[in-house]
Amino acid sequence: MAKGTVEIVVERCKACGFCVEFCPTKVLALSSAFNAKGYHTPYMVHPEKCSGCDLCGMYCPDFAIFGHKQPVAAKETAAAAPPPAVSEAKEEQDAR
Amino acid sequence: MHAEAAGVMTGTHFLDGDHACCEGALAAGARFSAGYPITPSTEVVERFASRVPTVGGTFIQMEDELAASIAIQGAVWGGAKAFTVTSGPGFSLMMEHIGLAVMTETPCVFVDVQRGGPSTGLPTLPAQADMMQVRWGSHGDYEVIALCPNSPQECFDLTVTAFNYAEQYRCPVFVMMDEVVGHMTEKVVIPAPEQIEVTPRRYTTIPPGEFLAFHPGEDLVPDMPRTGEGYNVHVTGLTHDERGYPDMTPAMQDKLVRRLVDKIKKNADKIILYEEDQIDGADVVVLSYGITSRVAQRAIDMARKKGLKVGKFRLITAWPFPEKKIAEIAGKVKAFVVAELNLGQMVREVERAVAGKATVRFVGHAGGSVHRPEDILQAILEVAR
Amino acid sequence: MSDLTELTAHNPVEQFLRMDRIPHIWCPGCGIGTSVNSFAHALIDAKIDTKNLAIVSGIGCTGRVAGYVNQDSFHTTHGRAIPFATGLKLANPKLNVVVYSGDGDLFAIGGNHLIHAARRNVDIKVVCINNLIYAMTGGQTAPTTPGDVVTSTNPYGTYDPSFNLPYLVEAAGAVYVARWTAFHVRQLARSMQEMFAKKGFSFIEVLSPCPTLYQRRNKMGDGLDTMKFYKEVSKVRNGALTKDVALTKSGEITVGKFVDRERSDYRDLMHDQLFESLGDDYVETEACSCQ
Question: Which residues of C fall within a CB distance of 8 Å from A8?
Fold first, then answer.
């Protein structure tokens, strides 16, 4: 279980790439999914490497992501799972 | 509420208009001023600099009028009653911040001791040529309240009135003096604090979280939040909604700007002040304000001695202009004589209100000296024929 | 991915923001948001009582900060945030007054006010986001724009010499002068924290990308490219002489804390002088409040 995880507010992201670039353990990547504004938002491609340092959160100009330490007894969160494929993500967005 | 005793120099004094104006500000509760030296206004703040440390407050001489005109607004939002003073060239520099005060509904007082212009003009000599500038000088649509004292006593009284109007209507209010009123020395009676009515700041009683900073009351004026008390107020010069948040749409522009204008227009009857004498039955009415009204009085007396029926109308508030009253008088008289120290400013308002129902005769010059009574008398004689 | 309802924790910076106005207007890759992020972290770390915090800004992209922070905030006129802040602070000294504005606003139209406030050592904290351009109005030359770059008012390349902001501000009298870039998120937050604890005119310059105008017109890449550039060419030199920290188009960026000194602040100077001259006649007030 990773020490940390991130929360991403997808609709706020403008895909600047800061979080992806400056994560010290390269946890994040820009997904092929995109938000309502058309930005490719980040996801945890290596969730197991997340330390919860929140450097991603500190860099984000849009307050769209932040990292935190996992509570010790927490189960695997949805954020740790790989992203759905593009079509699935679109369905998800349409449903919102 | 009554004036705070610390700021009231009760007694009978021999003061010039500039000094009396400063005492009026102190009596009204002003405890902050930011200024920049400019003849013939400087004495107002020089006195304030000397007085306020013994009353309790701050004066700061800023680096220019742009700074002074906004520093006072910062002080207002910090909780003080604040004012600045200037003359023509400085007044021109303050125009943008007059608009800011209008837009953010910041109560504050600007004193313009008018001198010959345009540009550097005649720094030590009078004029009354900023009267349209005070009304229209900043960009955009807005209304102003402007008062014209004609004596050092009125410099005291009307400065108190200016502060009261500013708090009541949450707007900048102007005291339009001129170099002669500013520098003439006369008896000024300053009453006891209990006899001076001072309008308190309309702070809201609604707690933070529930309070909408720019939601107007019945009189179209919103109550004010206190800074530093958790209201998290946002004050912006951008067109904004009732929360104070920018909302730059035509609909909000119309709603907000109309309210800012109506705030003064619809309350005009409560704001307008004038002095009239022997209007009923008059053939000619002499309209004037400020120092010119002192000369006009002499001309009126001379005309009455000749048997003419001459009425006097003195603007105390130049803005809002008493158009309803002037229109009413226009229906009953033959002519107006408008005397002012400029080449035609308030006379345009008279003409507009008279709407052709009577003759309007202008007596003015570009400034530098007060009128001669004979010039005004001559005009009265000519239109009375 | 998650939406707001599914978040297992909330970003602690959100308490300092007007979340009802987010997303903000700043472009993708703009560093202003990052600086506000650092600011929020500094507020948390410094345990600032934000009830007493007042933010004053001018006009421009950075000027919009006032509208996004959830404190008493004042979005004033172009170049005049500092005199407004001076009035606010002098009338109500218990307020912690921060001026948050851009390079054009603070140093071109606002330059005169800046140097006088620094001269007086008014106790206000100035955060200057320097994106080397007038961004909001479409990318015109600023007094900080380096030479030989293209702007909308220098379409053939700039030739105006540009200001060295830390040098200018130190010379004017500031007691705290630092420069960081939007890349230096942790150091920036720490500097901001130090600034809150400092009494007197304090100044932090934050270099930021303007990907839409400055970088794009000069084919310097996007915001991320600029952040990587900052990482590559910045050298931390705490205590460096400010006369040596001028910026050029692509040369070394000296960052760090350059000045941290003691001077009586304006209010102390005023009180001391008035007390000395007036003695018991001096009525010292905590604030200038009307009621």
Answer: 1-2
